[in-house]
Amino acid sequence: MSRYLVTGGAGFIGSNIAEALVKRGEDVVILDNLSTGHEGNIASIMGDITFIKGDIRDAAAVRRALSGVDYVLHEAALASVPRSIEDPVLVTDVNVRGTLVVLEESRRAGVKRLVYAASSSAYGDTETLPKIESMAPRPLSPYAASKLTGEYYCAVYSSVYNLPTISLRYFNIFGPRQDPESQYAAVIPIFVTHLLEGKRPTIYGDGEQSRDFTFVDNVVKANVLASRCEKARGQTVNIACGAHYTLNEVFAEMQRIIGSSISPEYAASRPGDVKHSHADISAAGSLVGYSVEVPFDEGLRRTIRWYREVRA
Ligand SMILES: NC(=O)c1ccc[n+]([C@@H]2O[C@H](COP(=O)([O-])OP(=O)(O)OC[C@H]3O[C@@H](n4cnc5c(N)ncnc54)[C@H](O)[C@@H]3O)[C@@H](O)[C@H]2O)c1
Predict the structure, then answer these.
(1) Is there a domain that residue 193 lies in?
(2) Is residue 265 part of a domain?
(3) Please, what sign has the CA dihedral across residues 116, 2, 287, 279?
(4) For residues 192 and 198, what is the distance between their CA atoms, to the nearest angstrom?
(5) Distance between CA atoms of 168 and 118, rounded to whole angstroms?
(6) Is residue 87 part of a domain?
(7) What is the CATH classification number for the domain harbouring 163?
(8) Domain limits at 48?
(9) Which of 2, 40, 64, 247 is the least crowded, having the fewest Cβ atoms under 10 Å away?
(10) Which residue's alpha carbon is nearest to atom 30 within ligand 1?
(11) How many angstroms separate the CA atoms of 237 and 242, rounded?
């Protein structure tokens, strides 16, 4: 049994990772300030984990959470492009300074490896698809810039301080427990809950923008593999499905699964949004042994089933 610290473990992705680690019999510590996460997300595992309510920018809290920890899975962040445009200073403080504190305390604690939740937003609009790690990053929002900066610090801590790190660039993750309520919610939870409630969701832009939507179980698997990947030292790899769907296609597929004829409303596109996103996932395969476990359509069915059950 190993001891894992999952920062942001009360959030959408972190809680799915923590739950999977508990199922595997690992020892799990969660550090989360509950700013966007909820204790309800970890209610089913609360008795099996150590939960510390604290901020990643607070070195003493991070030090306490790191006691006896082998592996760090750093998920905590303010994870929203629109929020970063409204409040770039706060988002940068949490995502950059918070990541630096987690890296510094991890180095001092002598952890075996740190896996960083990076973001595909770092690419911005590339001239060609799919997006591959060798492309020059072109962040289009404070959020993207902050997540990219976190990657750079992970690489620096690997080379300068010999702390093994790896950055996983997630591409539009969706699945159970993704929050539909927040004003910064992602499209899939908004679309699904609106359709289930008989309401019209809004699509910003013409709906022809595309994303490599990735079911959360794939990210969980990537984190488990990456934490044990001896080869990885400071690299960045894409984690996605390696396919892409437009928002109009996703919406139509949801209508079909749910059996709804409600149509979306269209509004002006939002600043900071990239037009197309589609990943090359070969590096994740060769470096960490990653492959897609749950493809998009199966993930969408499972997600809709989960929101239906929660509402019932
Ligand atoms: N969801 C996606 O599609 C996606 C894509 C790319 C990258 N990511 C990254 O994955 C990670 C998890 O994202 P998510 O979608 O689960 O978001 P989320 O908001 O559900 O989870 C983030 C968690 O971090 C916690 N947190 C925020 N600030 C904190 C702080 N200062 N101290 C301690 N805890 C703090 C929140 O309370 C929350 O529980 C983030 O780093 C995000 O940037 C997500």
Answers:
(1) no
(2) no
(3) negative
(4) 10
(5) 5
(6) yes
(7) 3.40.50.720
(8) 3-174+216-242+278-294
(9) 40
(10) 55
(11) 13
Domain count, the chain: 1
Nearest atom in ligand 1 to 79's CA = 43
Token representation of residue 5: 């610290």
Tell me if 196 sits within 8 A of 308, measured CB to CB.
yes
Contact 45, 19 (CB under 8 A): yes
Q: How many helices (H) and strands (E) are present in the chain, helices listed first?
A: 11, 13
- CA count, 13 A, side-chain hemisphere, 179: 21
Q: Tell how far the Cα of 11 is from the centroid of ligand 1, in angstroms.
A: 6
Tell whether pTM > 0.85: yes
Q: How confident is the prediction along the chain (312 residues), in pLDDT tens digits per residue? A: 999 999 999 999 999 999 999 999 999 999 999 999 999 999 999 999 999 999 999 999 999 999 999 999 999 999 999 999 999 999 999 999 999 999 999 999 999 999 999 999 999 999 999 999 999 999 999 999 999 999 999 999 999 999 999 999 999 999 999 999 888 889 999 999 999 999 999 999 999 999 999 999 999 999 999 999 999 999 999 999 999 999 999 999 999 999 999 999 999 999 888 899 999 999 999 999 999 999 999 999 999 999 999 988
Pocket, ligand 1, Cβ cutoff 6 A: 8, 10-14, 32-37, 55-57, 75-79, 94, 98, 117, 119, 147, 170, 172-173
Asked if residues 258 and 111 have their Cβ atoms less than 8 Å apart, the reply is: no
